[in-house]
Amino acid sequence: MYLQKGQTPSGHIHKVIAGDNVSYVVPSRLDEYLEEDATIKFRVQKPQQNSYIICTSKGKVLRKIYKAHLLPSEMETFKLPKDIANSLQGDISIRVESRGEGK
Description:
The chain is 4% helix and 52% strand. It is mainly beta.
């Protein structure tokens, strides 16, 4: 029913933003309160080796996942646990950086 009205159950959403080295992210929005873990999918802009997928919100790192290889032709997927997603205070950014960058 809430989909017909264009609203989420809680009425609040968080944007999921493609950051550095990420071409796009699905979904582009998350409801403020999730009943299960959120599956985030994305593609990198160029081939990457020895890199981290970093998920942040308001400068705080929510998840940091190491990947030996990332290719634009492959859809990457990771789970954002519902307890983390439900405690968000702002939008989410997904970026990929090489292991040596260390931001």
